[in-house]
Specification:
mainly alpha, Four Helix Bundle (Hemerythrin (Met), subunit A), 7 helices, disordered C terminus, metal-binding, Transmembrane ascorbate-dependent reductase CYB561
């Protein structure tokens, strides 16, 4: 920012939507904890309660942290692009680690209790989402965070990266909804249709997941809320294109 120039501001409405998204995210985490603590006995490793670490970890990682990682470029609009990229990758990486803990919890719990693995629609969708998410993270780091990919290759991959980022976020929420339904049908199938408190609370969690996804999705698709490139970033981008593609700024080879 030049001396005497007013500080950059966020577009109208963006800050309010960011606040709503974080309020929804924290509420869905609290609701998950309340459900598991009040009706499922809580969370503990190496015990019959080990399974409960799975829904808690997956909501925290594949929904809340993934959603926040997607919003990094909307929230940090005026920071250096390199720092924003690093934060974006770090949040996704943290989400992957926590999700892996959640996956290990459910496999360990199934092994202990003699329950078969990977037979339900929830498990198929959930595992596919995790594997694709891991692949998306590695490709994103390879193309955008670390040097190596050419300017034209980055330009080709960027739309694919954006599409699969949003698609995986949708798949993550869908898998969580399938998982909630599966738990309710296994645990309270006899009383679920009678509007028991646990069923109402779990359904509320599902509604919060959808609401969080809708708010994040709306913010990601508002064209005027996209992060504008800074002047120095445009210059660096031109220099990078010159180095990797052999073109001068004027277009000559």
């Amino acid at each position: 920012v030049m001396d005497g120039a007013p500080p950059p501001t966020s577009p109208t409405g963006l800050s309010a939507y960011v606040a709503v998204s974080q309020l929804l995210g924290l509420t869905l985490l609290a609701t998950t904890g309340a459900w598991l603590g009040r009706y499922r006995g809580g969370v503990a490793w190496n015990s019959p309660l080990q399974f409960n670490a799975h829904p808690l970890c997956m909501v925290l990682s594949m929904v809340f942290l993934q959603g926040d990682a997607l919003l990094v470029y909307r929230v940090f609009r005026h920071e250096a692009k390199r720092s924003t990229k690093a934060l974006h990758a770090l949040l996704h990486g943290l989400a992957l680690v926590i999700a892996l803990v959640g996956i290990l919890a459910v496999f360990e719990s199934h092994r202990t209790k003699g329950i078969p693995d990977m037979y339900s629609l929830h498990s198929w969708c959930g595992m596919a989402t995790f594997v694709l998410y891991l692949l998306q993270w590695f490709l994103g780091c390879g193309f955008f965070l670390f040097p190596g990919a050419s300017f034209s290759l980055r330009g080709w991959y960027k739309p694919q990266h954006i599409f699969f980022g949003i698609a995986l976020f949708i798949l993550s929420i869908t898998s969580c909804l399938l998982g909630i339904t599966e738990i309710l049908l296994f645990k309270i199938s006899d009383s679920y249709s009678h509007f028991v408190p646990e069923g109402i609370l779990a359904n509320t969690l599902g509604v919060l997941l959808v609401a969080f996804g809708l708010v994040v999705g709306y913010m990601l698709t508002r064209e005027e809320w996209k992060r504008p490139p800074l002047a120095e970033e445009l210059a660096l981008s031109m220099d990078f294109k010159t180095l990797t593609e052999g073109e001068s700024p004027g277009g000559g080879s």
